Amino acid sequence: GIYLIPSTGSNNYDLSATEDYRKNRKYKVSAAKKLTADGSTNRLYFPLDESYVRFVSYYPYASGATSSNTVSFAFADQSTQAKKEAQDFCFHRGTVDYKKGSSPKFTFSHKFSQISMTVKQGDGGPSVKNIQVKLSGMPKTTEVDLNKLSQQQTGSITVSTDSVTVKAYTHDGSTDTEATVEAIIAPHSATGKFAKRVFTFTTEDGEEKTYELPNTVTFEAGKSYNYTFTLVPGISIFDGMTNCYIVAPDTELTFPVSRAYTYNGTKFSTKLHTGGTYTSTFTAAVVWADAAVINGTPTVTGSGNTAEVTVKTTSTSGNAVVKICKYGETTPVWSYHIWVTDYDPNAAGATYTNTKNTNNKSNLVDGHFVFMDRNLGATKAGLGSGIGTGLFYQWGRKDPFPATLAPGATQPGSGSFTAVATTSARGTVTNTIKNPGVFYWGVSGTDYDWHYASRDNTLWGHDVNGGIKTIYDPCPSGWRVPVNYNMSEASSPWYGFTKANGGSFSYGYNWGTNAVYPAAGYRLTSSGSLANVDSYGYYWSASPNSSASANALLLNFYYANIYVYYNTSRAYGFSVRCVKE
Predict the structure, then answer these.
(1) DSSP string across 544-557
(2) Average model confidence (pLDDT) for the chain?
(3) Residues 200-225, mean pLDDT to the nearest whole number
(4) pLDDT tens digits, one per residue of 361-398
(5) Residue 355: phi, psi to the nearest 5?
(6) Of 212, 185, 332, 328, which Cα lies nearest the Cα of 268?
(7) pLDDT, tens digit, 9 for 90 and up, residues 74-95
(8) Do residues 104 and 96 touch, judged by C-beta distance below 8 A?
(9) Is 312 helix (H, G, I), strand (E, B) or coil?
């Protein structure tokens, strides 16, 4: 589409000029890059008096722009090359004066962003021929005001605040071993409904793998963002933005070190938390394992922020914490929970929906909390002595602690964890990341919080407006610690859990199909030792008791009482029951 506008010096940049010949006209471009009017009625003419004009041009042409000066784009379906190119908005703003007899030139710039992927078949991985890729959490639409854009006014491009899943275009000619995939998206950063952006890869055989885009990535106008993905057997290798991986026994898990490059104390960054951008190699090791679940020693390939960790599991179910360190060092830059289990939380019958809760937040599934059917880290669901226990977490920390043995004791799989009192030097987020195997028990000076000073109430993403999963959340991808949005009994994730509908207490309660909660006990805030196993159940929420309190909200029960709205000190090691994001 082409407009004629007055030359420099005129304030009249209105593209809906009354002169018919100056309006939006449709032109086609030849292979030789020459413009030709699409029919005689679309020809533009220079002024006969040889006065100067400038040109505004845009692609692709839109007939509706004639009256409104606006062009709209909807990004959801880019499954063919033509559909993808129809979203690739390009613009030429006239800065040169031309008159009758001139040969004007047009220089276009892309105003949206492009994602380009090379998808490869890894060793033993699935074929990538005709692979389908969807990009969720992307802006839904944009509207371009050509008049404002021609004058370089702010607000010329309006990006929708709603998100959508984009069907990307897979190039013709993809092979079993390599495919090229592209999509056009609106420029945006990881805020609001774009805070969680996930690429989903589906092979011809129906195998599905995902990659969660780091929150560090901001898409800018006119830039192309290039990614290379290699599909390997088994679990997805791509989700570098989670602290917990669910992996089946006898499986090889590979994942990137991306999370190590996301920490600067409060948000994502491009630097390691130990200072500076690190481009060399890493090593990996097991901190502890509550069963013999790791086969051999974890390995790291590559370097810098493109390095990948490979962990092989045995036929045993259980848990391990794996740390990565700079080469030659033993202090972790990040650590990961490897949950070895056949449990698939996304399978049918693997969850429980609490329909009694009154939150009805739009970001919940149909307004309700959907829980896993077992504790985070549990190898099975059910009630009985030691059954379904899972792991224990101090409030706001990403790393778990085993439910077996005392601090300092060698765990059944390998390694151990220790417990020490918090201090001003120990009780920081940075220090806990460097020491995933240390339980920092609380002291009276901190109101028995492991976090010694400058207490952070948002570590697990509490937000009364909806809540966003944070980089410290311990749950697997797609899941998070539940939020008590209004910090009240009625908005508790467990509202409606009563003695009357929980059945007889027997190592815990059963609140319905897939809603079995074992009395897992806890680790003491004063020592890290185990207490009240099989007698008491404590389940953290992501919410503080109040902005000024050292306590956090949770579910608490024992044989005599159930409290869906309870609070206590954050240094306790309690259970976590993840909910769907």
Answers:
(1) ES-TT-SEEEEEEE
(2) 88
(3) 84
(4) 766 777 789 999 999 999 999 999 989 999 999 999 99
(5) -80, -5
(6) 212
(7) 999 999 999 999 999 999 998 8
(8) yes
(9) strand
pLDDT of amino acid 237: 44
How many Å apart are CA 397 and CA 443, to the nearest integer? 17
Express each pLDDT in 312-337 by its tens digit. Answer: 999 999 999 999 999 999 999 999 99
Q: Which of 513, 501, 487 is nearest to 557 (CA)?
A: 501
Instruction: Write the single-letter amino acid at 110.
Output: H
pTM as predicted? 0.67
CA 196 to chain centre: 4
CB 460 within 8 A of CB 400: no
In degrees and rounded to multiples of 5, residue 296 shows phi and psi of 80, -155
509: left (phi over 0), alpha (psi -120 to 50) or beta: beta
**More confidently predicted of 320 and 430:** 320
294, two tokens: 């790791």
Residue-by-residue DSSP string for 464-517: TT-----TT--SPTTEE----TTSSSTT-TTTT--STTT-S-SSEEE-STT-EE
Query: Of the candidates 74, 578, 112, 511, which has an alpha carbon nearest to the alpha carbon of residue 376?
Result: 578
- β-strands 113-121, 224-231 pairing: parallel
The two three-digit tokens of residue 501, written as one number: 């509908």
Q: Is 287 helix (H, G, I), strand (E, B) or coil?
A: strand
Q: Please write down the long-range contacts of 21-28, taking CB distance under 8 Å and 24 or more positions apart.
A: 21/45, 23/66, 24/61, 24/62, 24/63, 24/65, 24/66, 25/1, 26/1, 26/61, 26/63, 27/1, 27/2, 27/57, 27/61
